[in-house]
Amino acid sequence: MDLKRLGQISDSFNLQMPKGVFLSARDEDKDNVMTIGWGSIGVMWGKPVLTVVVRYSRYTAELLKNSDVFTVSVPKAGDMKEELRICGKVSGRDMDKFEKAGLTKAQGRTVNAPVILGCETQFECKILYRQSMEPNLLDGEIDKRHYTDHDYHVFYIGEIVDCY
Ligand SMILES: Cc1cc2nc3c(=O)[nH]c(=O)nc-3n(C[C@H](O)[C@H](O)[C@H](O)COP(=O)(O)O)c2cc1C
Predict the structure, then answer these.
(1) Could you give the number of structural domains in the chain?
(2) DSSP string, 101-127
(3) What pLDDT is recorded for position 6?
(4) 4 CA to middle of ligand 1, Å?
(5) What is the pTM of this model?
(6) Which of 58, 109, 152, 161 could in theory staple to 133 by disulfide, Cβ–Cβ 3.0 to 4.6 A?
(7) CA of 72 to the centre of ligand 1 (A)
């Protein structure tokens, strides 16, 4: 994807992101989808990248340990509210969330992970870097506000290898 198109797409991504988008991951025969509300599109190492953050406690974090790809499916603004609510509340450890939320998944076009059909934009990403948070480097206010339980995030910087 060229960087000009990245700029056009990031506007709609940033608008929807606080309301939630779908992050999907696969570890061999196990697929999962979760709602994320934090993340960013940008440029690293001269490549278009999408960065997502996943707390250690998430089932998705387990799957990503054994995978080097993920996808992000962005609903049309205001769409799929109930599906986002379910995928942001229950864990794939306990049930098949695709079924529970009535989501239809399809094979990614370029990476070996599922995408969610019916969304406006699909990002397929290859993980270039992962970084556990270093609590001692974190702003004290943010630490108190978001991490009282020490359930820190892992940052995943994924090269956008396909977008449609
Ligand atoms: C709007 C919204 C945004 C969320 N954003 C994130 C996020 O960016 N990172 C994260 O780790 N959890 C986030 N969550 C919480 C997870 O979606 C939730 O814990 C989910 O059940 C994890 O699923 P899993 O255990 O199947 O991976 C968000 C939840 C909602 C409702």
Answers:
(1) 1
(2) HTPPEEE-SSSSSEEETT-SEEEEEEE
(3) 84
(4) 30
(5) 0.97
(6) 152
(7) 13
Ligand 1, atom 17, residue with closest C-alpha: 88
- Tally of CB atoms within 10 A around 136: 6
Question: Distance, CA 35 to ligand 1 centroid (Å)?
Answer: 5
Q: In 14-152, which ranges are E strands?
A: 21-27, 30-36, 39-44, 47-55, 69-74, 105-107, 114-116, 121-132
The per-residue pLDDT for range 11-62, each reduced to its tens digit, is 889 999 999 999 999 999 999 999 999 999 999 999 999 999 999 999 999 9
User: Which CATH number belongs to the domain containing residue 129 in this structure?
Assistant: 2.30.110.10
Going by C-alpha positions, the residue among 25, 98, 11 that lies closest to residue 60 is: 25
Q: Token pair of 54, please?
A: 């996943």
Q: Which residue type, as a one-letter code, is found at position 5?
A: R
- Express each pLDDT in 107-116 by its tens digit: 999 999 999 9
Q: Which domain holds residue 100?
A: 3-163
